[in-house]
């Protein structure tokens, strides 16, 4: 039982690590950006706080863009992106138009409108679950999760039939979580969202980590 | 939809112990182990939206010990955590974030070094920096209170001060009523209403919560985004759970966990 939190210098990995430990104390968690180590684990977490362009640059610095694409698409390695980590699953972001994301899920990331509520979107908000055919939100009692972001993926119509997702409304409607087979992403922070958040991490681990 | 209002607990740390404040005099309550083993703080935290941890007597000597405690706490609560006390520059802030903080709280630094406030905000973003103000109300006028000198500061107007925090790029404001601090008499609705009328940032209010009934009228004030209590002993056992359920029944827009 081994998982890796991809360590590329962008984000609060302390909380995520604690949350995974809380869900299953037996799991071996490594923080790494080394290809060899990433190859050997059962599943990957891609956390992230900060600027899309800066994150892409860091990923490039560790030659992780192509490597992760191959690992996830060809070797079917499960990947869970959180917050900026989820945005990186998409093709691109307005925050840095020249930086390409991982392109694992079709669509782009754009800035929130400024009205009626203040940007960044910060705090607990309610998600609406669109389809229950995925496993991410199984046995999750609450729909309130903790968000901190100014950009979001909003092209819900681009998600294909392979995706289940939830959405949230804050000035604009956006994708709050997405699940495309073994590729999972949450714009909210499950590690900061009480038991429901831990439940999502648990669902991922139960499914993909043996 | 707008985001939910927040129920927040503040843990006050003083030289190895967590304390309860009584009009700014500190009463020792217990150490970390006591908090989690005997007091079951993990259970209490399940009914909170956010946790604040403040080093009330910060020094260069106790910074590491304090942050070591923060690290332990952060690994046991799964909500955002804001850290305050002794953050004077980007290096201190960096240490706090590396210890698991999601936000830092700056108080006297606003009066001591605008440049350092600005730097911290530039590096970590407005959403991660809270401006905190202790204030004392005398004859319906609210004055900034400086606990370092145990006195009110008559040279700075509170409204202008909050405006300055907004201009500096703080993400939210935490106000603590010294009159009510640790009394358990309830939040000071009058002063909160005054401050709310000119504060354009999300407002967190602190000072005076002693029972369930104190939260509802405070949450009803439109710009009050969060109610904070540091009153450990009044909210032991299932008390915070009851507060939360009571507020949800009263249609206060809190997250449903």
Task: Outline the structure in words.
The complex is a heterodimer of chains A (210) and B (257). With 210 residues, chain A is of the alpha/beta class. Chain A has a single domain, classed as Rossmann fold (3-Layer(aba) Sandwich), CATH 3.40.50. In chain A, 27% of the residues lie in helices and 30% in strands. Chain A has helices at residues 13-23, 35-40, 52-61, 64-73, 84-87, 194-208, and strands at residues 2-6, 28-32, 43-46, 79-82, 92-93, 108-111, 121-126, 128-129, 144-149, 151-153, 163-170, 172-180, 183-186. In chain A, the strands form 3 sheets. Chain A has an 8-stranded mixed sheet with strand order 2-1-3-4-13-12-11-8. In chain A, a hairpin with a 2-residue loop joins strand 12 and strand 13 (183-186). In chain A, helix 1 (13-23) packs across helix 6. The N and C termini of chain A lie close together (5 Å). The mean pLDDT of chain A is 95. Chain B is an alpha/beta fold and 257 residues long. Chain B has a single domain, classed as TIM Barrel, CATH 3.20.20.70. In chain B, 33% of the residues lie in helices and 29% in strands. Chain B has 10 helices and 12 strands. In chain B, strands 1-4-5-6-7-10-11-12 form an 8-stranded parallel β-barrel, surrounded by 5 helices. Chain B is globular, with a radius of gyration of 17 Å. The two termini of chain B are 17 Å apart. The mean pLDDT of chain B is 93. The chains are: A alpha/beta (210), B alpha/beta (257). At the A-B interface, helix 1, strand 7, strand 9, strand 11 and helix 6 of A face loops of B.
């Amino acid at each position: 039982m081994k998982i890796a939190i991809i360590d590329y210098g962008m984000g609060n990995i302390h909380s995520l690590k604690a949350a995974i430990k809380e869900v299953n104390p037996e799991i071996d968690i490594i923080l790494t950006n080394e290809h060899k180590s990433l190859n050997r684990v059962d599943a990957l977490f891609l956390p992230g706080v900060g600027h899309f362009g800066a994150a892409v640059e860091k990923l490039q610095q560790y030659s992780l863009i192509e490597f992760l694409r191959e690992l996830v698409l060809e070797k079917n390695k499960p990947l869970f992106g959180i917050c900026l980590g989820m945005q990186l699953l998409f093709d691109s972001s307005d925050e840095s138009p020249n930086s390409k994301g991982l392109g694992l899920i079709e669509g782009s990331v754009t800035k929130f409108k400024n009205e009626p509520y203040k940007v960044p979107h910060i705090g607990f908000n309610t998600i609406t679950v669109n389809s229950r055919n995925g496993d991410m939100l199984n046995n999750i009692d609450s729909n309130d999760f903790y968000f901190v972001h100014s950009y979001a993926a909003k092209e819900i119509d681009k998600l294909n039939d392979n995706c289940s997702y939830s959405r949230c409304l804050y000035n604009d409607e956006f994708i709050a979580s997405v699940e495309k087979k073994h590729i999972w992403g949450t714009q909210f922070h499950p590690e900061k969202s009480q038991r429901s958040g831990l439940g999502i991490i648990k669902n991922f681990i139960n499914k993909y980590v043996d | 939809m707008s985001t939910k209002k927040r129920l927040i607990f503040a843990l006050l740390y003083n030289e190895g112990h967590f304390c309860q404040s009584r009009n700014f005099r500190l009463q020792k309550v217990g150490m970390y182990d006591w908090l989690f083993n005997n007091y079951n703080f993990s259970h209490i935290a399940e009914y909170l939206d956010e946790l604040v941890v403040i080093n009330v007597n910060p020094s260069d000597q106790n910074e590491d010990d304090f942050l070591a405690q923060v690290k332990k706490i952060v690994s046991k609560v799964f909500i955002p955590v804001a850290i305050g006390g002794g953050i004077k520059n980007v290096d201190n802030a960096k240490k706090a974030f590396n210890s698991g903080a999601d936000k830092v709280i700056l108080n006297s630094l606003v009066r001591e070094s605008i440049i350092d406030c600005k730097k911290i905000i530039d590096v970590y973003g407005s959403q991660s920096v809270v401006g905190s103000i202790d204030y004392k109300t005398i004859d319906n006028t609210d004055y900034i209170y400086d606990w370092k000198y145990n006195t009110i500061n008559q040279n700075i107007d509170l409204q202008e001060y909050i405006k300055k925090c907004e201009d500096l790029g703080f993400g939210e404001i935490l106000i603590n009523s010294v009159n009510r601090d640790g009394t358990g008499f309830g939040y000071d609705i009058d002063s909160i209403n005054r401050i709310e009328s000119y504060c354009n940032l999300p407002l967190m209010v602190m000072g005076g919560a002693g029972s369930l009934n104190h939260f509802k009228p405070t949450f009803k004030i439109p710009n009050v985004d969060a109610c904070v209590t540091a009153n450990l002993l009044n909210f032991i056992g299932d008390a915070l759970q009851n507060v939360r359920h009571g507020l949800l029944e009263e249609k206060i827009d809190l997250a449903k966990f």
